[in-house]
Write a structure and sequence with these properties.
hydrolase activity, acting on ester bonds; Putative triacylglycerol lipase; mainly alpha; Rossmann fold; signal; 4-stranded parallel sheet; about 350 residues
Length: about 350
């Protein structure tokens, strides 16, 4: 632990030296995925999966509920700061005009999206394939604003972050007999990873060369998962965690294959599973008080519209909790997760 902490300190010092001139380490940051990285694209959609109301955002800048499924910053917000950006990639659908504000990157993520397009359709969210279409529109705008040469260097030098798969399992597969009676979890993983490979190849074809993808978290440790599938136990649901580990192993193998297949591609898998598992199973060692219950409401099931200003029992100090709502980490946990992303992502900026 001490060596890891020392390494992180050294890397942060290196990054501080690099960005001291005020320039970010990369020209832009583009984000795709689900609620873990959505910063408000769902706000104006006809969906119940939203977070643009209190107490969401109560510890964010100006105590604003932006659409982030958190009390404060997401791990990707901290990542943007670590890369030297002074603002966060804006939610694409919330931009009133699209021009120079796209130059430093954009966030296309939509809560309840996944590698399986039908997952997004179930919740009236934006599928990854539709997020890619929005990115294509963004590229056309960039060409007009920056010119062909500058736009090309922005696109090839940018970092692309993808977070998906969790909703496919938690919000679709485990509750959908049309899926779980037809596919084993292993077969469903294979299906999702075929879609993942296609997405990466399509993103690569549009010019992306530095891509980071997060693994699944320990799904069986999410407060809502324990409540729904834990058989009255307060322990992580082993079956769900096994499915996550199996998917993650296949994700790593698929990513390695894509990197060999596509010239000049840097594709890094960010392990979210182990860092979050450590926070859940050893909270006090990491400065937390509670890891079974989330801060919002009872902390057992509430998320989105069930986590609201009238939710009874919402904690006063979210920094003591690993989870903000029953599916999503707190600002304090996200900051720790972002430090692990920083270490794993060094190769994307070198």
């Amino acid at each position: 632990m001490k060596n890891s902490s020392h390494f992180l300190t050294c890397m942060v010092m290196v990054l501080v030296v690099v960005v001291v001139n005020g320039q970010p380490l990369v020209p832009a940051l583009f984000i795709f995925g689900d609620s873990v990285v959505d910063v408000g694209n769902n706000n104006n959609l006809d969906t119940i999966v939203k977070a643009n109301f209190p107490p969401y955002g109560r510890d964010f800048k100006n105590h604003m509920s932006t659409g982030r499924f958190c009390n404060g910053k997401l791990a990707t917000d901290y990542t943007a700061e670590n890369l030297g950006f002074t603002s966060y990639p804006p939610a694409y659908l919330n931009l009133k005009s699209k021009g120079t504000n796209l130059l430093n990157g954009v966030n296309f993520a939509s809560a309840s999206s996944g590698y399986y397009s039908e997952t997004a359709k179930l919740y009236h969210a934006i599928s990854l394939s539709d997020q890619l279409e929005h990115f294509k529109d963004c590229l056309n705008t960039l060409l007009g604003v920056a010119g062909k040469s500058n736009a090309s260097s922005i696109i090839s030098g940018a970092i692309y972050l993808i977070s998906a798969g969790n909703s496919d399992f938690i919000q679709n597969y485990y509750i959908n007999p049309l899926l779980y009676k037809v596919y084993t979890a292993d077969q469903f993983s294979d299906f999702l990873l075929q879609n993942y490979a296609t997405f990466i190849q399509n993103l690569y074809a549009l010019g992306a060369r530095r891509i980071g993808v997060t693994t699944l978290p320990p799904m069986g440790c999410l407060p809502a998962a324990i409540t729904l599938y834990g058989s009255n136990s307060n322990e992580c649901v082993e079956r769900l965690n096994h499915d996550a580990v199996n998917f993650n192993n296949k994700l790593n193998t698929t990513s390695q294959g894509l990197q060999k297949l596509l010239p000049d591609l840097k594709l890094v898998s960010f392990d979210i599973y182990q860092p979050l598992y450590d926070l859940v199973t050893k909270p006090t060692e990491n400065g937390f008080f509670e890891s079974r219950k989330a801060c919002c409401g009872t902390g057992l099931l509430e998320t989105s519209i069930l986590c609201n200003s009238k939710s009874i029992g919402t904690c006063a100090n979210a920094s003591e909790y690993v989870f903000w709502d029953a599916f999503h980490p707190t600002d304090a946990a996200n900051k720790i997760l972002a430090e692990d992303l920083l270490i794993a992502g060094i190769s994307l900026i070198s």
